[in-house]
Amino acid sequence: MNEFRLAAILALLAGGVFFTFVSIVGVLRLPDVYARAHTASQTDTLGAGLVVGAVVLAYGAETEVIKAVLLLVFIFITNPTAAHAVTRAAYEEGIEPWTEGDERR
User: Fold this and answer.
1) DSSP H/E element including 101
2) Cβ(36)–Cβ(74) under 8 Å?
3) Which of 21, 54, 89, 95 has the most CB atoms around it within 10 Å of its CB?
4) Where are the domains of the chain?
5) What is the model's pLDDT at position 90?
6) Which long-range contacts (CB under 8 A, 24 or more apart) does 93-97 make?
7) Own/partner pairs for 80-84, CB < 8 Å, 24+ apart?
């Protein structure tokens, strides 16, 4: 494995870990279910995508790559769909979004 490929794998892994960490911080720090669902779906999907991209680069053109790409497609479909379902259920239950003057929940 050459140095450029190894650097690309490490960069993708570092990016994936960073965005996953941002997702964790967002879920812990944001005030309501709507903001938390947004950060969880957006940054977690990006973080997982970068990590799966690193796996694809690490394994090359083997059968594991096909599995990794299918996993990536599954993640890109299910994460935003789940976040939408959670926020829609919260809206239908009457949970109001946090606004500037509200206390943190």
Assistant:
1) none
2) no
3) 54
4) 3-92
5) 92
6) 95/32, 95/33, 97/32, 97/34
7) 80/41, 80/45, 82/41, 83/37, 83/38, 83/40, 83/41, 84/41
Closest CA to 16 of 72, 73, 87: 72
Q: How far apart are CA 45 and CA 27, in angstroms?
A: 14
Alpha carbons 7 and 16: distance in angstroms, whole number: 14
What digits encode the pLDDT tens for the residues 51-93?
Answer: 988 988 888 777 778 888 888 899 889 998 999 999 999 999 9
* C-alpha span between 47 and 41 (Å, rounded): 10
Query: For 8-23, how does the pLDDT look when each residue is reduced to its tens digit (9 = 90+)?
Result: 999 999 999 999 999 9
Query: And the tokens for 86?
Result: 């959670």
Strand ranges inside 1-105, DSSP E: none
Largest CA distance in the chain: 56
